[in-house]
Amino acid sequence: MADYSGVPIEHLGEVSSTNDVARERAASVPHGWAVRADVQTAGRGQRGHGWTSPAGGLYLSVVLKPGVPQHLMTGVPLVCGIGAARALEGLGITDVKIKWPNDLVAGAAKLGGMLTEAGWSPEGVYAVCGIGVNMTSPQVKDPSPRALPATGLETLLAGDAPARDLGVLADALRAGIAGTVEEWAADVKRAGTAATPLGRLGSELYDRMAFMGSYVGLIDRSGNAYAAGTLTGIDLWGRALVRLDDGTGEERAFDPAQVSIRPL
Fold this sequence. Notes:
The chain has helices at 18-25, 76-90, 153-156, 166-191, 202-208, and strands spanning 9-15, 34-40, 58-64, 96-99, 103-106, 109-121, 124-133, 215-220, 225-234, 240-244, 251-254, 259-263.
């Protein structure tokens, strides 16, 4: 794992959103700089959904400056998911998967979620990866019938595990995310004009995708069921490949900015 011990993680009490803080600081901080907060009052997830952020969870945002062409930055959110999964496995959590495009699951339960946002600084394009990880298994009021059950690190880790400390967990996740993005950036730079948004990490992403080969529903930006079919893979641009259950058997690619998947 990359060593970012010389790059600060700023610890704040209550903020609107750690992603907002990180975006404000992005122009003046190095790759891997991060901020965590005890509470977020306006946390957000994919497609503008609210993210409940009470005291006791980890709310962390990491500034990423991979220095790659803008058209390749579409791979960053999924690369961050790989980095987070690697870090969690390094802390002793087994079978961490990515529920495309932005959730982390352990077994069949949701452990955390991620939101990656792009911006510009004098150095060029950058990204901020925000991640929230449950320490306890949250009790969700009136959950969606399509929602996954939730889990937390206190359920998955032994009582004396160092990662039960939020500072230790933040250090590990920051290193995993920033280090994996750095690895990915070096790979796509070597590939030159032949580079694709996922690079060589596409095969690892395939192995880490939850519900591969399962029957899934596609949920649009408004939270409505859009289509259903079998999740068959992922393409070089990070789009989910689904064989539709519409009588045609057609396999279609779906953009992560437009839909998410839920097991059915």
